[in-house]
Design a protein that fits this description.
It holds the Pfam family Epimerase. This is NAD-dependent epimerase/dehydratase family protein. The chain has about 325 residues and is an alpha/beta fold. It has twelve helices and 13 strands. The protein has a domain of about 210 residues: NAD(P)-binding Rossmann-like Domain (Rossmann fold, 3-Layer(aba) Sandwich), CATH 3.40.50.720. α1 links the parallel β1 and β2.
Length: about 325
């Protein structure tokens, strides 16, 4: 079985390589802007260097030829002060990957979508994969994920014989990517080890509407692999329990208590510091975290036989520990421009 992974050196790509390493008879092909060093798990794959923001569908189709499945994980979260640059990777790149898969006659395409593709939704009950995927329009991440959902809709209509699989995880954590995650969301002016001190705060101020879901990267990789094995079509929500509200986040960090913090005030602080380039999180992430719905994972459990092996609180706890230790994959540098 030949599997091509676009964005194979990133957070999810690394986890999928680890997962595939346990399977016999699998040929892995990785695509990245720059090939990582030949160390495990990266040494398990044949590598091709390509930038999906500029690559042609024809050039990618040559790499995709003979693949049983193409997994598209490529994504840019920065530079978020330059949305057109991100869109060239996130939106244009996804269209090109889909076009290339069609040209190569690949029987299955799996795309990393997200809870961020969903439109504004409830926090008090879980929604299924049929919830509207219009995104949160004040978030570049939500807009781009929604655009990609429409691109997948069009691709499915034009290629009815291709199994299109949409994996929609919550926040994806793994300790080995802690430093890179910190740089993406906090920026390089904020010392990574300082973020690890969050567990020593006496109180944690958070908006009560900040309710999110998280999952370990290895569990997301397992969902992708199960979907490949079954050639499963459609969308699958992927998240671990419990749902992370202020109390659960504080407990995972070991902070004694939380205090309510007005969403508008937090958004204004994030907006100002982002505009001043003091940190790297734009205010759209606050809108996303407080607006997207809580997802039901019932379909993944029933149709893929999937279940998380690591709780959301344990995944968060591992990440914060790794931030304090400054852990990072040496290959993560290949993700930076």
């Amino acid at each position: 079985m030949k599997i091509v992974i676009v964005g194979a050196s990133g957070n999810l790509g690394t986890a999928l390589l680890r997962r595939a390493a346990h399977e016999p008879g699998v040929e892995l092909v990785g695509i990245s802007r720059r090939a990582p060093r030949p160390e495990e798990p990266y040494s398990l794959a044949e590598w091709h260097e390509a930038d999906i923001s500029t690559a042609s569908a024809e050039s990618l189709a040559r790499v995709f030829a003979g693949a049983d499945a193409v997994v598209h994980l490529g994504w840019a979260l920065q530079p978020n002060h330059d949305e057109p640059a991100m869109a060239r990777t996130n939106v244009r790149g996804t269209r090109v990957v889909l076009e290339a898969a069609g040209l190569a006659g690949v029987p299955q395409v799996l795309v990393a979508s997200s809870v961020g593709a969903y439109s504004f939704g409830p926090k008090h009950r879980a929604v299924g994969e049929d919830w509207p995927t219009g995104g949160v329009q004040s978030s570049h991440y939500g807009r781009h994920k929604a655009m990609n959902e429409r691109a997948m809709d069009a691709f499915e209509q034009a290629n009815p014989d291709v199994a299109v699989t949409r994996i929609r995880p919550g926040l994806v954590f793994q300790p080995d990517a802690a430093t890179e995650i910190a740089h993406l969301f906090a920026g390089r002016l904020v010392p990574v080890r300082l973020l690890g001190l969050m567990r020593h705060l006496p109180v944690l101020p958070l908006p009560t509407s900040l309710i999110a879901q998280a999952v370990h990267a290895d569990d997301v990789a397992d969902a992708f692999w199960r979907a490949i094995e079954r050639r499963a079509r459609g969308a699958f929500n992927i998240a671990a329990d419990p749902v992370l509200g202020p109390a659960e986040i504080a407990a995972a960090l070991g902070v004694p208590r939380t205090v309510p913090f007005r969403r508008g005030v937090l958004r204004a602080i994030v907006d100002l510091t982002w505009r001043l380039r003091l940190q790297a999180t734009d205010p759209g992430w606050i809108d996303l975290a407080t607006a997207i719905p809580v997802m039901s994972t019932a379909r993944a459990r029933a149709e893929l036989g999937w279940a998380p092996t690591i709780s959301s609180t344990a995944a968060l706890d591992q990440l914060v520990d790794a931030l304090g230790a400054g852990r990072n994959l040496p290959q993560s540098a290949s993700l930076r421009g």
